[in-house]
TrEMBL record, chain B:
One of its GO terms (molecular function) is isoquinoline 1-oxidoreductase activity. This is Isoquinoline 1-oxidoreductase alpha subunit. Its EC number is 1.3.99.16. Residues 73-145 form the [2Fe-2S]-binding domain.
Length: 226, 156
């Protein structure tokens, strides 16, 4: 047996090992190319990009089966609270001097402030960007009375019960019950919440349905949740 | 549809869709390209013009609403405050890339006309809708103070 190659003798390779390596590489390459793959398919829109759908609001008449007026009043306000606590309403009832925006209720950009009349600082008015109507080209929402609710009517961070007592308190809401009902039912800035434009989610139901809930709630004693 | 626009002291006639943002009418139809397109969604302030004396984002202002207004762009902005702002901008070498500066200047001029001696807080508040990607905010604030002083000195 020779353990050492004689000096000057060339190393020799068998052709079988080279051929086997080539075949293995070809087989591996073909396996990679023709392995089972799922074809690209269309994806559904992300929730943030999909056109939002309005959710329904229970009609005031559907609460008639609740016999106890106090319980009925509470139930009516709980349903109306789905509108009151919706971002379309809450964004303009901040507890600071700065509004929020989007359904995530993030701080408003640009970094605006309410100013002396709740319609912006004298040098950066809401009207710098917001017009009388929604402007589709820029996506900027608008209404003739575009402004924040007074700071006394801050809702963000409040429970529904606290908001309830707040809107019934004329010293904070600056409204009688008749004016409150008119505000909820007729006010065009409140009405914007159901026609917000762009891809904003409207408040549940309609302003008329919301108004009838508020009206029925007032008629049943305007009870507030705890 | 045909509209008449009063821009920088002259009447212009344009035939565009009434929902066209004023920005594009100024830039494309009237060739007043000093007003810049930054974001198109009223977030950056680069497109600021004066409408009836108030700073407004022209990207969010429909042509049909502009036809009854007096519009001033950076090309036509003049007066004591505008001159003082221009001088202060040059002295302080305010712009870096310069893209946002016409909007910054339009907001600054409107600020000085409403508030002749603004504090830092008032400047920050009035200018907070004008974004500068180069971060020249400190120079802008200093230049507005300089310009306010210049206006006061020329008027006294």
């Amino acid at each position: 047996m020779r353990w050492r190659r004689a000096q000057g003798e060339r190393r020799r390779f068998g052709c079988f090992s080279i051929l086997a390596s080539l075949i293995a590489m070809v087989v591996l390459g073909l396996a990679m190319i023709f392995r089972p793959q799922s074809m690209p398919t269309s994806q559904s829109l992300l929730a943030a990009q999909a056109q939002p759908r309005a959710s329904a609001l229970r009609r005031a008449s559907s609460f008639a089966s609740i016999e106890d007026p106090k319980t009925r009043s509470l139930a009516l306000f709980q349903e109306a609270g789905r509108v009151i606590e919706h971002p379309r309403c809450m964004n303009c009832h901040p507890r600071s001097d700065r509004p929020t925006q989007t359904s995530a209720m993030r701080p408003h950009m640009p970094w605006v402030t309410r100013g002396p009349d709740n319609a912006g600082a004298p040098t950066l008015r809401c009207a710098t960007c917001h017009r009388d109507v929604n402007f589709e080209a820029s996506g900027v929402p608008g209404s003739p009375k575009w402004k924040l609710a007074p700071i006394e009517m801050a809702w963000q961070g409040e429970t529904l019960g606290e908001i309830c007592r707040q809107i019934l308190d004329p010293s904070r809401s600056h409204m009688s019950r008749a004016q409150l009902l008119h505000h909820m039912t007729e006010d065009e800035l409140v009405g914007w919440a159901w026609h917000p434009g762009g891809n904003r989610e409207p408040a549940p139901g309609s302003q008329a349905e919301f108004g009838s809930l508020i009206s029925a709630w007032l008629d049943t004693g305007a009870k507030c949740p705890a | 549809m045909a509209y008449s626009l009063w821009v920088n002291g002259k009447t212009h006639h344009v035939d565009e869709d009434g929902q066209t943002p004023l920005l594009w009418v100024l830039r494309d139809a009237l060739k007043l390209t000093g007003t810049k397109y930054g974001c198109g969604v009223a977030q950056c302030g680069a497109c600021t013009v004066h409408i009836d004396g108030q700073p407004v984002r022209s990207c969010s202002f429909p042509l049909e609403a502009a036809s009854a207004a007096q519009i001033v762009t950076i090309e036509g902005c003049d007066g004591a405050e505008a001159n003082a702002i221009r001088n202060a901008w040059v002295t302080r070498d305010v712009p870096q890339c310069g893209f946002c500066q016409s909007g910054q200047i339009m907001s600054a001029v409107a600020l000085l006309r409403a508030t002749p001696a603004p504090s830092d807080a008032e400047i920050d508040l009035a200018m907070s809708g004008n974004i500068c990607r180069c971060g020249t905010y400190n120079r802008i604030r200093a230049a507005i103070h300089d310009a306010a002083g210049q206006v006061r000195s020329t008027q006294s």
